[in-house]
Amino acid sequence: MKKENSFGHIHSFALFFFGILLLQISYGPTAMAEERPLKIGVLATRGIEQCLKTWGPTADYLSGRIPGHTFVIVPLPHDRIASSVRAAEVDFILTNSSFYVELEQGYGTNRIATLKEMRLGRAYSHYGSVIFCRKARTDIRTPKDLKRKSFMAVSEESLGGWLMAWRELQETGIDPHRDFARLTYGETHDEVVYAVRDGLVDAGSVRTNTLESLQAEGKIQLADFYVFPRLHNPEIQTPYLCSTREYPDWPMAKVKETPDELAEKVAVALLQMQVDSPAARAAECAGWTIPANYQSVMELMMALRVGPYKDLGKVTLGDILHSYGLWIAVGFLMFCTHLAFTGLVMKLNRRIKGSHLSLLTEMELHRKTDRELAKAKQQAEAATLAKSQFLANMSHEIRTPMNGIIAATDLAMAEAMSPEVERYLHIVQNSSYSLLSIINDILDFSKIEAGQLELKERVFRLDEMFDRVMDVFVNQAAEKGIELLVDIDLDTPRILLGDSLRLQQILT
Fold it and tell me: What fold, for 17-125+249-313?
């Protein structure tokens, strides 16, 4: 009996343990899921506090509609949206439509529902932008009036707070980055409105329904502002303030790491949200609708070249290398070959040109030398001619009296005289003939220079030729106390054939 009771206790314990194990297996994932709340990143267009106030009830709504999961809101400024999705710091993301387009293309986010905004008692799944200034600024009424004015937008990435307005201004011929005196960013829609109201800037832009919401909260008076009328398709009238064309409202999207099954549950819950639910009232929306088509947002970003389209139409070096790398390499090789060949040809051409120039220079130098030589020859010939004429004139002038002296001497020697006088006359006669020979020598030199000298071969006595030479120098030698003697070797022939006059010229 005791054994049966013992066996029953063991059997009951085993069943209990097995049941606990089944419960753990069944509810384990839910319990683990509850340990980490699911984060919904929300673009905080009006600041963190207002973001939590607006979207906190939506997180509570989802926590209540999806068992086993807790949702929390994570307010994010404009510059934290992309980094939070990239690092998977959030599970879902609720942001403006332009951010969504960029996140979809860059990080694989996927929209699951589109917000329906409540305005003036009606639901709208699209929104626009408002361009406004203080009503007292009567000098600002058209886009062109904004030139050289200060302007404040929400942020560079804000769709309703800047990009929509930028597109309209651009299409009216205004380049904000060039034409505005100053372009600044307030980071929240409220700050932009306050800056315009307080005169810190001349004009600004915020998303639709911002001015109406601030007036409803008692923070501003709409009567203090002037809102630009619709710039694109002005015939379209809206019951709310809007200056631009409108685009699909904010999408709720799942990040790439979030399971599809969980995303489907969230999408169903959002689509089932009633317009009078606390979550819808807090968000001032009429609930959610199926995901909208965001093609118009893509077109806006393409027109402005922002986000994933900032390089639209630009061809990067990587694109070129990827598509045409092989052809570029072949072309570059051919270019280098052509360049080398061209360089070689140019080098050879330079050498040829240099040689040609050197040849021309040398030829010109030769021609110049020839001209100078010809000129010098002409001058020399002219000088020679002048000299010859001078010598001819001079010899004529000297020959005349010299011939007279010789003739007188010859006559005197024919008379009887003492030996002493005869010797003197003989010296005068020889000297006269010598002087006449000198004159002839001068003329002979002129003939030598002119190439006209002729040698006259005659038989003459060598001792007589030396006697004539001695007669010329004997008196000069005696005056200086020099005894002048001529000694002719006995073996030397006394009778010679030649030009005795030229020989005498050489000796004297």
Answer: D-Maltodextrin-Binding Protein; domain 2 (3.40.190)
